[in-house]
């Protein structure tokens, strides 16, 4: 797994749904990480949604990542015309971030 690859993004999505049950919460904590989410949506003949997640590990080792999910639709919203993810390491070590995510994967597998 690499930061931002499809395996990472799939685990990221699993963690969002496992740790934010009501899906309406925009701030929550998971295993020492402050998780913040922002969403922008525009419904029109060409629609889009951008969901931004900022995760900050507050204990040592400190790190922060930004993960963005962008979706675009035409009038028929059953099929996306663009569905993209990207992740950016704002500070800290990529290895520390991946270690944290692997630990969460182990917890989900139990």
How would you describe this structure to a colleague?
This protein is of the alpha+beta class and 110 residues long. Helices cover 27% and strands 44% of the residues. It has helices at 6-19, 94-109, and strands at 27-30, 33-42, 47-57, 63-73, 80-91. Strands 1-2-3-4-5 form a five-stranded antiparallel sheet. Helix 1 packs across helix 2. The radius of gyration is 15 Å and the shape is elongated. The two termini are 19 Å apart.
Quick rundown:
This protein is an alpha+beta fold and 110 residues long.
Keywords:
elongated, single chain, 5-stranded antiparallel sheet, 5 strands, alpha+beta, 110 residues, 44% strand
Secondary-structure map:
Layout (H helix, E strand, L loop, with lengths): L5 H14 L7 E4 L2 E10 L4 E11 L5 E11 L6 E12 L2 H16 L1
Antiparallel strand pairs: 1-2, 2-3, 3-4, 4-5
Helix pairs in contact: 1-2
Tell me the span between the first and last alpha carbons: 19 Å
Question: Overall pLDDT, averaged?
Answer: 94
Q: Counting H and I runs of at least 4 residues, what is the number of helices?
A: 2
The low-pLDDT segments are none
Strand order, largest beta sheet: 1-2-3-4-5
Helix content: 25-40%
How many beta strands in the DSSP annotation? 5
Q: What's the alpha carbon Rg, rounded to whole Å?
A: 15 Å
Structural class computed from helices and strand pairing:
alpha+beta
Largest sheet: 5 strands, antiparallel
**Which band does the percent of strand residues land in?**
35-45%
């Amino acid at each position: 797994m690499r930061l931002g690859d499809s395996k990472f993004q799939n685990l990221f999505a699993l963690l969002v749904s496992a740790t934010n049950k009501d899906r309406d919460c925009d701030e929550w904590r998971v295993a020492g990480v402050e998780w913040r989410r922002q969403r922008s949506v525009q419904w029109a003949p060409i629609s889009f949604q951008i969901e931004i997640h900022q995760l900050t590990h507050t204990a040592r080792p400190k790190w922060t990542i930004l993960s963005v999910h962008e979706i675009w639709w035409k009038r028929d919203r059953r099929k996306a015309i663009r569905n993209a993810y990207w992740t950016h390491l704002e500070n800290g070590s990529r290895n520390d971030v991946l270690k944290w995510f692997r630990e969460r994967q182990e917890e989900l597998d139990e």
